[in-house]
């Protein structure tokens, strides 16, 4: 990966973040202190910072309309290849993670057709993981 992405965000419980990102999502843990942990999320650096009063529920923020669905705003995630996306969906189901949007295909038959799923971490941060059968469609206009 040429340019890994970095994002830092609040969590209200580092043990819950460690279990979710480390165990559920399978992210290797990087550096940490008693107030933050960084994780390798498919080659990208995501950093959970302990900020108890800053946490939120994705449902309490905003949403945007996308292909007939309301999706939580803000959210973040990774674009995966289809096999990795399916494996992650299976992993999340095995851990009984509740989906805000069940794994589905959106824009079916259109340019940019993609698999997508939404769920939240224990602190309420919304995540979206998507996949394209044809990665050249990532920025295709409809």
UniProtKB/TrEMBL annotation:
Transmembrane region(s): none
Any Pfam family hit: Glyoxalase
InterPro entries with a match to the protein in the record: Glyas_Bleomycin-R_OHBP_Dase, Glyas_Fos-R_dOase_dom, VOC_core
Superkingdom field: Bacteria
Protein name as annotated: Glyoxalase-like domain protein
